[in-house]
Design a protein that fits this description.
The chain has 233 residues and is mainly α. The protein contains 10 helices and no strands.
Amino acid sequence: MRRGNGNARLDADKILTAALAIADRHGLSGMTLRMVGAELGADPTSIYRHFASKEALVAAMADRLFGEVAAADYPEDWRERFIAIGRAARHVYRSHPTIVDVLANQPEESPSLIAINELSIGCLVEAGLDPVQVGLFHQLLSSYVIGTGVLEASWDGFGDGARDASRRAYSALHPREYPNCVAFAWAMFPEADDVFEFAMGILLDAVTGLTAQAARAKKSAATASTTTTRKKA
């Protein structure tokens, strides 16, 4: 813990950096404004000049983390860009497991999530989806990133050997009662990165498949219209 004279000059960015460091070490419940002030060598009451409450500070912490996702550089190709955005957002959850609930419940109207959504929706529009499909796939993919981020943060908390331990437990089940679990225990609980890349590939292949299907239908309709026009002529 840092010590100061209580007169350190504060700004919102310094406060957020300190608050995130404390939350990562002690959890959200262990983060107090007094601890943040002590981390900065400042009177904790001075934090109220920037944040009206601990709740406001916590919301700003989440928005800052997602803001880093929105501000990153991404590939030009829509598919690579979308996957990279998903990876970056997922990394936020895994890097800050002590505030994962706050991250998962950040309002969609928060500035940084709006910025991320602008980027990801743009990818889907560029892919060629119609408006309804854009909404459906955006919700589907966002839900997957949030869900897998929360799940993986939980797995990470159990340590590196958690997946191996679960595989061993499944292998030890009674083979007559649980034949499938025992037979496939070695393949269960794969590494998080492998699952993420596999799932994103499947979902984005579905996007590509729908746009290709729409293109074929449009071409077929155009051909039929031309044929009808020629017959009338």
